[in-house]
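Fold it.
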Amino acid sequence: VQLQASGGGWVQPGGSLRLSCVASGFRLDEYVVVWFRQAPGKEREGVACDETNTGRPRYADSVKGRFTISRDNARNTIYLQVDSLIPGDTAVYSCARGRRRSIGCMYYSSRDHYRYYGDWGQGTQVTVSS
């Protein structure tokens, strides 16, 4: 099982990026997938969660209206479109899946999210600066 994130880079404030998370070793349409980010000196936080059965994505308040999560099950890939970037979005972005098929988005923003989401892949760095 592997989740590989890519698509990060350096952008100026107001810029956009499209991050990708390619899943291997399991069917993406059977699990919830969460995008997390971790900035230097800060705890990891969940920013977007995509459930398989409700079709209703969830977003952290800090990114609502600027980030969009989507999936392509045929490509086994989850995307995170990040727009209107601000320096506060600078972080390593990574993705994880629910530890069980029954895990939804309920815990993606909790401090003990690691109990419910795992199989972390290598992240991708997003740097926003002028």
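The chain has a mean pLDDT of 93.
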